[in-house]
Amino acid sequence: MAQDAPEVIEVTKTRVSCDGGEGGHPRVWLQMPGEHGWVECPYCDCRFVLKEGADADH
């Protein structure tokens, strides 16, 4: 049985929060590491990707 790919969300800030949508899990704050423009939620594996041209310092 194939698993669905985790959701990918484009964001404009390097610090984001995730709650899994509709109370899927506790809200967590995630910080993108400086060496790449994405971070994954440890609960639901949702991947937050910094949009092209976004200011990586904020």
Which descriptors would you attach to this protein?
58 residues; mainly beta; two-stranded antiparallel ribbon
Question: What would you note in describing this structure?
Answer:
With 58 residues, the protein is mostly beta strands. It has a single domain (8-50), classed as HSP40/DNAj peptide-binding domain. It is built from no helices and five strands. The strands form two sheets. A three-stranded mixed beta sheet has the order 1-5-4, with no helix packed on it. It starts with 7 loop residues before the first strand and ends in an 8-residue tail after the last strand. The relative contact order is 0.35. The mean pLDDT is 87.
SSE layout:
Blueprint: E1 8-11, E2 15-18, E3 28-31, E4 38-40, E5 47-50
CA gyration radius, whole angstroms: 12 Å
N-to-C CA distance: 40 Å
Q: What characterizes the major β-sheet?
A: 3 strands, mixed
For the record, the CATH class is Mainly Beta
Short description:
This protein is mainly β. Helix content is 0%, strand content 33%.
